[in-house]
Amino acid sequence: MAYCQRFFISLNLYFNIKSMSVLITNIKELLQVRDTNVLKVSGSDMKILPTIKNAYIYMEHDTIVAYGSMQDLTSMEADKVIDATGKIVLPTWCDSHTHIVYAGHREQEFVDRINGLSYEDIANRGGGILNSAEKLQNTNEEDLYQQSIQRVRKVMQLGTGALEIKSGYGLTVEAELKMLRVIKRIKKEFPIKVKATFLGAHALPKTYKEDKKGYLDLIINEMLPQIEKEELAHFMDVFCEKGYFSLEDTDRLLTAGKKHGLTPKIHVNQFNAFGGIALGVKHNALSVDHLEELKDEDIQALKGSNTIAVALPSCSYFLSIPYTPARKIIDAGLPLALATDYNPGSTPSGNMNFVVSTACIKMKMTPEEAINAATINGAYAMGISNQYGSITRGKKANLIITKPVPSYNFLPYAFGENHIDTVIINGNIL
Ligand code: NIG
Ligand code: FE
Questions:
Q1: Which secondary structure element, helix H or strand E, spans residue 131, and what is its range?
Q2: Which atom of ligand 1 approaches the CA of 341 most closely?
Q3: Ligand 1 nearest atom to the CA of residue 102, by list position
Q4: Residue 344: nearest ligand to its CA?
Q5: Alpha carbon 44 to its chain's center
Q6: Ligand 1 pocket by C-beta < 6 Å: which residues?
Q7: How far away, in angstroms, is 267 Cα from ligand 2 center?
Q8: Residue 410 to residue 263: CA distance in whole angstroms
Q9: CB crowding 60-87: b at 16 or more within 10 Å, else e
Q10: Model confidence over 215-258: pLDDT tens digits?
Q11: CA–centroid distance, residue 347 to ligand 1 (Å)
Q12: How far is the CA of 115 from the centre of ligand 1 (A)?
């Protein structure tokens, strides 16, 4: 520890960074401690959550430097010491699937669904994604940024320390770029880790209703080159679904995205299973997301691949659609991540604590599996698990300190309550 401290002090003097060191002591249980750099956990390994009881953790600036059992803590020196008696400490949530940048809300559609319309009925009469696209097109960039950062602040307070954010409510060149520039600004101005995804193929805009090829051409010839030029995205997503984009469309789009340096991800198997997962695997997609409808051949396709399945239980909850069959996925030896899908239509909530609870209650995931899915596997689904998602020396200082709780099982068990006392993101105590 002494060597590490000296190393970081000299590094900070070199870069003239004002280093702030934080020591958390008397931690009832420190969760997700992984000494070696595990990038994801799969199958029965997801049941294992490595912990240290009666622990300490020491961080300098934005980095985890040391941790261990309280008996082994020799020096108590730090700029700030936090006594965590009775409290649990875990890595912040990694939310690998959100549409947190949007304009306005769609609570009327929520009421329409209560009164009997389906998500599909609403989309077919021009509501849904097209409703949000119209609102976003009529909102200026500054206003869109201001609306979106209120939600970003909220999810940070709820313990999210890394966030994937998609475009896809623009659906014109101008509005898609506006969304992506807002995401880029959030990335620059907030301590939370942000990864941007281009989802121009989220729905067919009204102006291209009879000309799908025209819209695909627009994405490929106009949007993608500009996105690459301004370095606006890391990933490329497509809503591969009946009534949205077919397997052929998705294939063409992901191929084009890759030529512009974008790694594929897919919204797939939300309402219908027709081979999109195998297509994702063929493209070496980083993740395939939703999977509420899942066939045996989809499981087979995922086996042996680098593609991770991402379940979005608060979307199932809100739309009253089936939950992703987590047991089937995990029991087949595969990895699974959990994310919110925060968006104005199918999931107006970015609360990862609720996601973890719902995964345990409705998907029969154990608390260990759900915590693994929402931390290290979420980080993997964003391609950042070498720096986020676990308590590991050298990883980013992103931590949740809970209120006093009897055990970590209590977190998903006592659902709907806020168990968080303090959040630390990139070394900043919120
Ligand atoms: O992931 N399924 C596609 N996209 C979003 C919902 C979009 C919307 O309704 O605005 C989702 O659920
Ligand atoms: Fe989504």
A1: helix 129-137
A2: 1
A3: 10
A4: 1
A5: 22
A6: 128-129, 132, 239, 267, 270, 315, 341, 343-346
A7: 6
A8: 37
A9: bbbbbbbbeeeeebeeeebeeebebeeb
A10: 999 999 999 999 999 999 999 999 999 999 999 999 999 999 99
A11: 8
A12: 20
319 Cα nearest atom in ligand 1: 12
Q: Which of 97, 98, 99, 105 to mutate to test the pocket of ligand 1 (most atoms within 8 A of CB)?
A: 99
Separation CA 426–CA 20 (nearest Å): 11
Distance 398 CA to ligand 1 centre (A): 28
343 within 8 A of 128, measured Cβ to Cβ: no
What's the start-to-end Cα distance of the chain, in Å? Answer: 26
- The span from the CA of 259 to the CA of 272, in Å, is 28
DSSP per position, 311-350? E-HHHHHHHT-PPP-HHHHHHTT--EEE----BTTTB---
- Whole-prediction pTM: 0.94
Encode pLDDT of 402-430 as tens digits: 999 999 999 999 999 999 999 999 999 99
